[in-house]
Amino acid sequence: MSFQVFGIAVSRGVAIGRAVLVASSRVDVAHYFVAPGEVQAEIDRLLRARDAVVQELVTLKEELPEDAPHELAALLDVHLMLLHDEAFTGGASHWIVERHYNAEWALSAQLEVLARQFDEMEDDYLRERKADLEQLVERVLGALAQEQGDTPTPVTPRDFAGEDPLLLVAADIAPADMIQFKRSVFRGFITDIGGKTSHTAIVARSMDIPAVVGTREASRLIMQDDWVIIDGDAGTVIVNPSPIVLEEYRFRQRQSELERARLGRLRHTPAVTLDGEHIELHANIEMPADAEAAVEAGATGVGLFRSEFLFMNRDGELPSEDEQFAAYKAAVVAMKGMPVTIRTVDVGADKPLDRLTVNELRHEHVLNPAMGLRAIRWSLAEPSMFRQQLRAIFRASAFGKVRLLIPMVAHLSEVRQILDAVRKVQQQLTDAGHAYTRVELGVMIEIPAAAVMLPLLLRHVDFVSIGTNDLIQYTLAIDRADEAVAHLYDPWHPAVLQLISQSIAQARAAGKSVSVCGEMAGDPVFTELLLAMGLRSFSMHPSQIPAVKQRVLRADSQRLAVALPRILDSEDPQAAADKELAPVRSGSIAVH
Questions:
Q1: N or C of the chain: less Cβ packing under 10 Å?
Q2: Is 517 a catalytic residue?
Q3: Residue 442 main-chain phi, psi, to 5 deg
Q4: Nearest to residue 539, comparing CAs of 206, 110, 40, 85?
Q5: Which architecture, in CATH terms, is 36-146?
Q6: What are the tens digits of pLDDT across the range 354-377?
Q7: DSSP strand E in 367-409: where?
């Protein structure tokens, strides 16, 4: 049966493929693919874990006291029967063979299938057996976790014969999982929760694949292996489409691919406006390997290296100084002399670490993590960790131009502590004989307080970078990951535009460089507006550079600047921008 699910469009384009349900609310397991040669070994892992649980239950039944309730022995019999049912391990084995899922993922996928079958049963007794099934899955997962020996090496199934395109469907996707899935086979994402700047949305845009978030019920309505269309332009998900609808969307897919190929030809064209302004189009990266894609896309540097992703998926262990140094050095060398701006670890809010923070409270126990111990607050509360990261960054500066960026600064006292830590680190490196060069210091403008007091901050730093995602969130008092208030998240809000425009103007007046590294920088809708404000340095995911560059090449920054006051003074800046900038766009296209 065909039906539609509606959500928030966060990454444009069309994706067509089979649904893959992960991160079930019932069980939380690792999700990765196994190589074709390890499929049978993975099935054997599953069966050994199943047999271990069987033996455990048999032993429990044999050791029941004589006066034990009859119902208890009957319950164990039900569990044993379920374990031996072909639909249980046989169904899970199917996912290993057909999709190359690891055993844990295959088991949780089969749980989704069977749980829905139980939900549809009319008999109350049979319907309640779903709880027994969930308990058994947890037992088998526990047995898999305790099993000694090597687990399979995760791989991506791009070369698997006969593999259909896959779309990821989940209630939510943790940032750490997104990094794991980032280089995988998925052609699109669908989540129940999230907003336009939730982490899932940002990573989907960075991968240049369609995504719809905030669907509320998609992970419950869509079943494993359903054929699904993601319309990333309209925010619509079409499940089990008719042949006519499928063909229409395949045509749209082909058109999008042709457009991307056309924009790709601008890769090596310098980003210069019609009136001769040279614009820096830097890249946002998350891992050292991303630097190669940045160079390939024609980036003029790295405007944001999100170092926190080096700290994730490590079972609570922090990376050592040498490990961090190797990662930063790899990115610096890959950029071939172009600048690399490394942001110190920005954990907290939507990017928690596994380990306990200094106050020994886990992220999920914090009432409002976006306002809590995160970013530079976390680093200053962990001085040894902070100095370790600073040493690694400064050591990498010996191999190219490195800039240091500090997130979430709001107080001059924080800047003083940062400068003191930098001085101590420089002395430590000198004493240890490690080479380093001058590293420019910058702060992110993402808290309204920092924007308001920017002239004071500029006395102590070399550059600033405007993080529009959090600046909008904090200015409008909106949780940007909460779909219940996602409609209030508005980058066109007059207060937001005033803060951005003022920050750019004040930095330029002080002779300090300023960039925008938030989602607005990579959205072509805002390119002319930011140019009008005087911005000359944008930072975005490499995949977004061609579309923004096209806008830059067609822009006349002087004519755009003339229109800026009328936009900022308007009660509806978006409508005013459409009216004021349209003539400039049409004129520039004709000249170009």
A1: N
A2: yes
A3: -135, 160
A4: 206
A5: Orthogonal Bundle (1.10)
A6: 544 334 334 445 567 778 888 999
A7: 402-406
